[in-house]
Amino acid sequence: MSEKTVKRADLSLRLSELDLFILTSFFFLGIVDSFLTYVGVSIGLTEGNIFIASIIRHSWALFFIFKFAVALFMAAICYRLKNRLLPSLLACFGLAIALWNLNLIIML
């Protein structure tokens, strides 16, 4: 193995502080938003977003899975845009479309 290959592998395994900030901020954004939605609906408030309200009517588990997937998707987009890795971004976009279609099928 040449020295260039070793250096390249080492760089790919490191996460910078900005990367950790991006990933954790979207993770906690998803948790806080989901918790506040749960508390608000539990005390009698109405969800303003019709799509999210229909997910909540079906099940809270589906709502939490959807919110977690959206938070991960947004974090992946920001991380990949920062690193300019277009193929990975397209893969994340395809996963989001698949989750969206699965959700629409479940709601029918």
Keywords:
single chain, 108 residues, mainly alpha, flat
Summarize the structure.
The protein has 108 residues and is an all-alpha fold. 85% of the residues lie in helices and 0% in strands.
Unreliable residue stretches = none
Proportion of strand residues: under 5%
List the secondary-structure elements in sequence, H or E.
Answer: HHHHH
Mean pLDDT value: 70
Structure description:
With 108 residues, the chain is mainly α. It has one domain. Helix content is 85%, strand content 0%. It has five helices and no strands. Helix 4 (60-83) runs antiparallel to helix 5. The longest helix is centred in the first third of the chain and has 26 residues, at 17-42. The protein is flat. The protein starts with a helix and ends with a helix. The mean pLDDT is 70.
